[in-house]
Amino acid sequence: MAEDEEPARGAPLSPKSTNPIARPALGVRAPFKRPGGANPGAAFKKPFRSPMMNAPVDRGVPTFVARVSETEGAPAKSSMAGQMAPLIGKPKPQVGLAAIKRLNPIATAKPMVPTPDKLYFSCLYAKRKSAKNRSSKSWVDGIAINQHPTTTLLDMTGKIVAKGKAGTCVEGTTMEIGNWEVEIQDSVSEDSFLSGAALAGGSTAPPPAALRAPPAVRNAAPFRPAVGSIRDGIAAASQRRGGGLNGAAIERQPLHDPNKEGAIVMSSAGVDLPEGRSNVTVVVDPFIGRHLRPHQRDGVRFMYECVVGLRRGGASGSIHKGCLLAHEMGMGKTLQVIALLWTLLKQGPIAGKPVVRKAVIACPASLVGNWGGEIKKWLNDTRLEPLLVEGGEGADGKQKFEDWALPNQRRHCVLVTSYETLRSHAKTVQKATGGIDLLVCDEAHRLKNTKGDTQTIAALRALRCDRRVLLTGTPIQNDLGEFFAVMDFACPGLLGDASVFKKVFSTPVEASRDKHATAEEKRIGAARSAELGRMTREFVHRASARDVNAKHLPPKTEYVVFVRPSPVQAALYRAVLRRGARDGSQPLRALQQLQRLCNSASLLMRARGEGEEGEDVGGGSLSDLSSKVPEGYPDPSDPRVPAHDEAMSGKLAVLIRMLQGMRRGIDKTVIVSGYTSTLDIIAEACLVMGGKVSRLDGSVPPNQRVPLVNSFNAGRGGDVFLLSTKAGGVGLNLVGANRLVLFDSDWNPANDLQALARVWRDGQKRPVTIYRLVSTGTVEEKIFQRQMLKGDVASCMGRN
Fold first, then answer.
1. CATH architecture of the domain with range 556-562+649-797
2. Domain boundaries, the chain
3. Region labeled Disordered — which residues (predicted)?
4. What is the pTM of this model?
């Protein structure tokens, strides 16, 4: 056969192969053959590289690259030399040869991971010096942020120290930024920086677990009370020596059956505590435990775990025995504390010894009697008889403190007193007893001083008690600095230093809530807020009244009623604004006058204890404003005009219409105001309409407040109850009313929230309606908007 007619064996495009590959039968393994046969080295060749990758290209000669079209049977297209042929579809297998899957090195390459815009590193930095000795420089920890080509140096509070182009920024390098020499250390994740965990105030502890489930009881055997057998006597004696019969702690019988249906188990035997290993299962007394709702059971268990040392967290991850129960108003925080007190007074996880011998409950003066009544309601005097010491008792009060503090005194295990009274007698309690076992602070937002140097806080710390339970429905009122103060008293050192906390958490979070905040500020604020919640989650327990009480109480409806000021109010308001704009020397006094004017024009023009006749505003006398009153309307400064005249106040006119629409003897209304002079005007209007009115403000002695509230709830106090925001806005149960009117708003939203919760709470049997009156186009609208902004800051703590 001629040479040109010889068949091309193994040609790639041969239609029929003359050397077919022998394949083994299905399921039969082919015998091993050495690659290359007689010439083994021929089988080991270099990896294939396409000639299109490295071969020199002659752009004058077209080179064709055969390939298979996307469409089966379509003619193959060609590419000119120097152009990469697109690889579309799979290569068509050769006839008679096994189909070989070849991977395209370009198409199968892993996609490149995009480099982050910013890189974060921990670093050390010091002032540049001519000395080359490293030890002669003062090095400080910091954070370096590299966003090519700029590197920013921050201190450990997040404050920018220097910024500049310093070259490559990787681990182990040294660079100069401004006047600083910087040594780059380890890489820091973006999440750690944004949350503040990488900064000085961040947490180095592992993420805390969620609220613990009820502990499992190890011994499921039927409950049997302890009997006085010989073996039990030997075991008790051995336990007092610190060991059991076999050298180990003996598990004792609990005081109450943990296997009974509905039993509330606080802790099981075998749990490690700071004082040792527990050997008794602690169960809440069923006498009071059966009254607890699910969220209250969680709250009691939370407080117990904190005070016995089962929880740790914060910046250092250390154990703290204080906590903050931040359930909203009206959710039964008092009952939860009573259940905790009764449990700790009678039981303990180690040898059954009670954890608490003496406890102090500090609260506002108006709530001392309320605490006494609640303890009597749930436990009776036969189980627990507290000692109530209210303010204004003089020498008699001092004697009560001295008697209660005697070491052998066992009749009154619990002392209930006001903050003011305790401040005067804290040293007496501390000297006589050497400290107490449990301190409960009701309405703990009173301890919101950031410096912690007030007389009240000093008196409470003098009691030398590390088990501290703080109660408040509004843990954050104005800013996060107040929250820091409350938590630093409950758990000292939990959030670190106050100045660092302000820079790392407080300032970024509050800046992110501003309407002009940038996207980056919002991102940092959200991350810092989440980190702060993580750091405090083990020691703060929150619950929403809207979610819980809605299942157990009648419905509540809230209205924000925007009221147009009367013509007299509007004219005087414009005049005061113009005078204040010209002078502007006393803006705070001007704001107070505008607030009083929004309540009633007569409050501004007449002296009612909150200002003197003829006081100045904006460089002019108030008496000169009479000329600004529109014609045909009464002069507010004229004493012959009733202060409750409807021309004096648009809100008062609306309130009178509401009261006239009430059903006498059925509907009862609580009217709340921050000004006692406003309550005077409302009382005059109510007396003109007829009917009995009850009133509670700062002038009512503490020992008369509880009987006054009880009389109103029982239906003997009339249909209207006038309440001062500051004196009676906390802790009171006014469930006898089914309506509440908030006549004016406070700059502090917590004061209004406390007052609004007096009616819709445990014990309410009727649907509740709440009205908030706001004068349109005035400073009251600004106050209302400010309250909403502060509410956003408070929401950063989230829920449990």
1. 3-Layer(aba) Sandwich (3.40)
2. 48-108, 119-188, 556-562+649-797, 567-646
3. 1-47, 608-643
4. 0.71
